[in-house]
Amino acid sequence: MAILDMSKREPSSPSMPRKAKKRLFSLAKTNSSLSSFSGHIPPQTPSKTFSRSIMEENIDNADTIVKKWDLKESSSEIFSSLFKQDRKEAKEFIKCVEDLKRAMQFLVTEHSTCNKLVVAQNLMQIAMKRLEKEFYQILSTNKEHLDPESVSKSSRSSQLTRSTSVDFQEACESTDSRNEIQAMSDLKLIADCMIGSGYAKECWKIYRIIRKSIVDEGIYRLGIESRSSAQINAMKPNVLEHEIKHWINAVKVAIKTLFHGERFLCDQVFSASKTIRETSFSDLAKEGGINLLKFPELIAKTKKSPEKIFLLMELQEAIAELLPEIESIFSYESISSVKIQALTSLHKLKSSIQTILSDFELSIQKNSLKTPVPGGGIHPLTNSVMDYIASLANYNGVLSDIITESSMSAQSSFPETYSAMSAVSARLAWIVLVLLCKLDTKAELYNDIALSYLFLANNIQFVIERVHASELKCLLGDEWISNLEKKVKLYSTKYENVAWNKVFLCLPESLDPLLSPDTIKEHFRRFNESFEESYQRQKSWVVPDGKLQDEIKVSIARKLVPAYRDFYDYYMVVLSGEKNLEVLVRFSPDNIGNCLSNLFHENVMSGSLVGSSTLPNSCVWQCIS
């Protein structure tokens, strides 16, 4: 406490401001070990006298160079930078200040009433004013060299030299950042000196003024604005989509370049003090970081719709990819709210995506369209659901983070065969199953049972083809596809039996030579009527998939045409002398084949991904063998 009553002990000494006294106490604390040790040494030893003379000499040396660069003594209105004008003398200036600090520490603990202490404190204030100005000048005149992009590149070059044998100087030259490295080096030199001298707050304030404006400008140039829920909800869908796409591009630059560069610069300049590093970066980046990463949370809270899920997944993917860097850049406790905001946005997006998937599944179940699709073609629900699921499959990586085993455990109604699938595959397979169950109810809308079977065969085949043409094939697997193909075969066979069984029954089971002409005529008459009825009824039915269309027509032809040909050839001899034979026998075997070839071509669904028949008209009967 001796320093507090200095003026009483030495009235001739200049008075010391209260603020200066506080700084001296601060210096004394940094040298507490020296103070404690000196208390056990007897006073007035020769070594102490020698130490004091050395320290007073340091003060005298500092007086010369510090006053030379005293801002008040400068006659020029234009500031002349010491670090730019004479780098050798700049380093000497810093060394003098360090020596001055050590002298003050010694005198505070050993000779607190010494007049030299007041002189030293005045010199320190002059030196700090000079360094404050130099610090400001370097920051303000090197904005181009210390822009976030350049600093970020230097950071990565620095990481490169640590992980490889590349020389750091070569890395710097390769990125043309020598001026930037020099500026950072000077800033660090000044910051170390000011922090060590008890002027950390002054140094930090200058840094904050300059760099905060650069961060704010960077965020503004990226087009990142603070939005409210009301503003986002009022956006039209196309505007919202544009904003989301823009944000995804902007956030990558903001994290990888802007905040990454600022964190690196803070760490370099204020390497002497973890507290100053943390405080400085927190002041620069906290507000901007939170505003930046809050946008996805606001989007997740907007009105949900099936098509919005893809934008939400893109947001989810963007944040998830950047999360390791976000956690690294915003690692300080004082700025952890930025990390928390990123995690909150991820959680809200995940929840919203899960809700949309559940709502979509429910919408399939609740589809109330009561009008049958003409000709048993592809139902609009089948088309829209498969398009949607195929698009979802393109986001397998994102969905794997959202649809987890734990989130699927609630689906106790899942078929046991799904247990071998991944969570994403099982969920998509389940949605297809919900669709197929709904198609069963749609098939009941047809009055013709044969047409209902054809409808199911068509729609399941469409599902299979859509799976083959997308990433769903990899997700659902060959076994799953094979099971559906069996269903197509089952329904097409049922269609064939129901639709053509009456025609088959018109032909005799065997060729009996004892049949009377009248009986033969009756068989031809019934066949004519039955085939004509079946053909006319099915002429407007469709099979959009070319492969399935060929399979069905060939299957019918292989059974019907040979049987009719045998009947025709055998009994036409008996009827050869009959009048009006062309009325009695209306169809030749070739006519039957041609008619079958003409089936399933009308009203094919527009824009269908499935192809048309690969067989030309009047050639189905030629495939019979």
UniProtKB/TrEMBL annotation:
It comes from the Eukaryota. GO terms for cellular component: exocyst. Residues 1-20 are annotated as: Disordered. Coiled coil: none annotated. Residues 245-597 form the Exocyst complex subunit Exo70 C-terminal domain. GO terms for biological process: exocytosis; protein transport. InterPro entries: Cullin_repeat-like_dom_sf, Exo70, Exo70_C. Keywords: Exocytosis, Protein transport, Transport. Pfam families: Exo70_C, Exo70_N. Residues 1-11 have a biased composition (Basic and acidic residues). One of its GO terms (molecular function) is phosphatidylinositol-4,5-bisphosphate binding. Gene3D superfamilies: Exocyst complex component Exo70 (1.20.1280.170). Belongs to the EXO70 family. Component of the exocyst complex. PANTHER family: EXOCYST COMPLEX PROTEIN EXO70, EXOCYST SUBUNIT EXO70 FAMILY PROTEIN. This is Exocyst subunit Exo70 family protein. It comes from Anisodus tanguticus. The lineage of its organism: Eukaryota, Viridiplantae, Streptophyta, Embryophyta, Tracheophyta.
